[in-house]
Write a structure and sequence with these properties.
Helices cover about 40% and strands about 15% of the residues. With about 375 residues, the protein is α/β, with parallel strands linked by helices. The protein has two domains: about 5-205, no CATH class; about 240-380, Rossmann fold (3-Layer(aba) Sandwich), CATH 3.40.50.410. The strands form four sheets. Strands 8-7-6-10-11-12 form a six-stranded mixed beta sheet, with helices on both faces. The chain has a three-stranded mixed beta sheet with strand order 1-3-2. Strand 7 (about 280-290) and strand 8 form a beta hairpin. The longest helix is centred in the middle third of the chain and has 19 residues, at about 165-185.
Length: about 375
């Protein structure tokens, strides 16, 4: 039997995060594991490109603690601690960042209130700084202290140097935004992290990018262990491969009286835009108000319908139930002003609310669609 190596253990931990916590797992894919001895803190470290590790430390940790430390490393990047240090006292900022990230990690819970991650004993924690940012903590730390961080932050200077032009920093902003959208749509982004990340992601991705990336993520980023990823078999590592070659979604267009003719035209044009981006797709187009009126299945070379009926009130129940029971679709997109009660959340399918109002869905991912000022004309629409 082949003896486990430190790198193999790290890759196993990453696979577990990919499957259970895709936000962290996806971000870790951008960090290449590199063995590095002689670090100031012989644990783990990152410079924004690599995940440095001391093999002895990795092998000494139980898997749950290793996962927690890896979340600690990529969490520094997600909260932009590497880029936000700037000209501040490096040691003081490093301590502040560790206090902030450790508090967030140990207080991340699931829907049942159970802690999701574990960290090794002896980490920096202070209940007085619960839910505080690194900036807040930094302002309250002494200039000198004998306390030590969990990891080696010496390589952060390389990120600041390489990211001085903004290119590397923007690249990570895009990665973080996309990973957050993917995880949020799957219901896999813990609330505390969602709030913290949203506070630091500026500028956010535009709605078209978010919509497209989410559809692609749900359709193609479907990991499975068989067949394995052939790229790593020669190294003895069996990592998940990707499956899903076809974009298959349901697009529900609200045609109630509160939606203008022009907005319905825009919704149908967005459907056409989705079709134009992919070479292989199935789009189940549904128009609805209190019930579904039009059902259409679109494949390559099909024409998007230009006539719809409706103009009653709004009820999301039937469209959600139809999305839930339609086999093979990866995402349910609903274009609406969300001016209606919300039904029970569909099971087994991510929902994207493409909202033309200020309202947000109580579950799923809401993308704000920039609403224009139109005259509302309550009649059938012909384009």
């Amino acid at each position: 039997m082949t003896q486990e190596t430190a790198e193999g253990k790290i890759l196993k931990a990453r696979v577990r995060l990919l499957l259970s916590q895709p936000f962290f797992g996806n971000l870790l894919l951008y960090l290449e594991p590199v063995e590095k001895k002689g670090m100031a803190m012989p644990t783990l470290a990152t410079d924004g490109d690599h995940l440095f590790y001391d093999p002895g430390f990795v092998m000494s940790l139980p898997m749950e603690h290793l996962i927690g430390v890896m979340v600690h490393e990529v969490g520094h990047i997600a909260l932009r601690h590497l880029a936000r240090r700037q000209g501040r006292n490096p040691m003081k900022w490093n301590l502040a960042a560790d206090y902030a990230i450790n508090d967030l990690i140990v207080n991340t819970t699931d829907n049942n209130g159970c802690r999701m991650f574990q960290l090794p004993p002896g980490i920096l924690l202070n209940p007085a700084w619960h839910d505080q940012t690194a900036d807040f903590i930094y302002s309250r730390l002494p200039e000198t202290t004998d306390k030590k961080t969990l990891d080696d932050h010496g390589d952060w200077k390389d990120f600041e140097k390489d990211g001085s032009s903004g290119t590397k920093e923007q690249e990570w902003k895009d990665r973080i935004a996309k990973a957050a959208v993917d995880a949020r749509t799957r219901g896999k982004l813990p609330g505390k992290w969602q709030t913290a990340i949203d506070d630091f992601l500026e500028p956010k991705l535009d709605w078209k990018t978010i919509l497209t990336d989410t559809i692609v993520s749900n359709s193609r980023n479907d990991y499975r262990m068989f067949p394995p990823n052939k790229k790593h078999i020669w190294r003895g590592f069996y990592l998940p491969s990707m499956r899903g070659e076809e974009i298959s979604i349901m697009f529900g267009c609200d045609v109630s009286g509160s939606i203008s003719d022009e907005e319905i035209r825009e919704a149908l044009s967005e459907v056409k835009g989705i079709c134009d981006q992919f070479s292989d797709y199935t789009i189940y187009l549904r128009t609805f108000d209190t019930e579904i009126h039009n059902r259409c299945e679109l494949h390559p070379f099909d024409v998007v319908p230009s006539v719809v009926t409706g103009r009653g009130g709004t009820d999301f129940d039937e469209i959600c139930r139809e999305g839930e029971k339609t086999p093979g679709i990866s995402t349910l997109v609903i274009f609406s002003d969300l001016e209606a009660p919300f039904p029970k959340e569909p099971q087994g399918i991510p929902v994207i609310w493409l909202s033309v109002s200020e309202r947000k869905g109580p579950w799923g991912l809401t993308i704000q669609y920039p609403r224009k000022v139109y005259n509302l004309r309550r009649k059938n629409v012909s384009i």
